[in-house]
Amino acid sequence: MKPPAVATLLANINMPWWIAGGWALDLFLGCQTRPHGDLDVGVLRRDVTAVMANLLGWEFFEARSQVLRRLERGESPRPEVNSLWCRPANSTSWSLELMLDEADGDTWVFRRQPTVRRPLTEVIRRTPDGIPYLSPEIQLLYKAKLPREKDQEDFARVVPQLSPEERIWLRDALTKSGEYPAGVVFE
């Protein structure tokens, strides 16, 4: 599944959602820079049950510690679960992963370090054709914990494209969270 298909799928959902993961960085850059094995969609934890209710005919599974647990219709994910694997019912292929983000009112809160916050209006950006995606500096913050080779490549590709203010925010957030990846340069 690609971002335009997700935008169509979620068009009737009246709460914040956004493309996350590597696709969010590619939407920021304006082109696909590498293959993507999946598509991540961010939603606020407080809205996830309503989002799931709008996806009729879909199955949802909590993903935690490399174990999947099916959620029954109307069941909320447990508080310690941060992602749901999703697929159309009777499909064997995963179509998307719902990433659960925290918020305090109209403020996004980084779940691994709650002192790192941003107004929701600064967290979600839009492509020229209206597809919402996670701001690149926040997506890179999520990728900083235990970065894989593709995450390091994403840092190298995206950090130089950030504005000076975005680079400062990311550097400060990485410092606060203690998840500063090796080799990242902000100068």
**Which ranges are low-confidence, i.e. pLDDT below 50, for 5 or more consecutive residues?**
none
Number of helices: 7
Shape: globular
- Cα-atom Rg, whole angstroms? 16 Å
Please give the alpha-carbon distance between the first and last residues: 36 Å
Residue-averaged pLDDT = 91
Q: How does this structure look, described?
A:
The protein has 187 residues and is α+β, with helices and mostly antiparallel strands. The protein has a single domain (3-177), classed as Beta Polymerase, domain 2. 32% of the residues lie in helices and 26% in strands. A hairpin with a 2-residue loop joins strand 3 (58-64) and strand 4. Helix 2 (21-29) packs antiparallel against helix 5. The longest helix has 14 residues, at 164-177. The termini are far apart.
